[in-house]
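Ligand-bound model needed. zinc ion.
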Amino acid sequence: MSEPDTGPPPPAIKRCRVCGCTDTTPCPGGCSWVLDDLCSNQRCLFQAQVAEMEKHADARVPIEFDVLTAIQCVAALQLALRHPRIPQTAGTTSRIIVDAIGNRLRQISPLFGILIDMGNDAKFDSPADESAILRPDGRRARG
Ligand SMILES: [Zn+2]
Ligand SMILES: [Zn+2]
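Prediction:
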């Protein structure tokens, strides 16, 4: 008994999952493939991101840092939190991350917790061009 001769499958046409554009009918102004089924159109990227975030809303993102990286991450977020025009959502999220990493660092060493608390308070800021060790009372102890 022989297999029916169905021939090779027709070549699949790449098509954007959001807008349906193809290689032969790209978005106005042109687009490229970001994924096999997603084009680079900003609206497509945004809609696809929203869909992925809804799909994976309950997924966890476990990460581990060494202590130095964790402290640098907290410091960078604390700096971002000082920006007068940080969007509210980004500010809230940054604060959550600072507090979460800070609590883990505090468990490793109470000193890390003290330093992170100081980093949350602008009165402990040191000028970028000045090397100084700050004491908890905010006064500089020249090293
Ligand atoms: Zn698209
Ligand atoms: Zn497109």
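Residues 11-57 form one domain.
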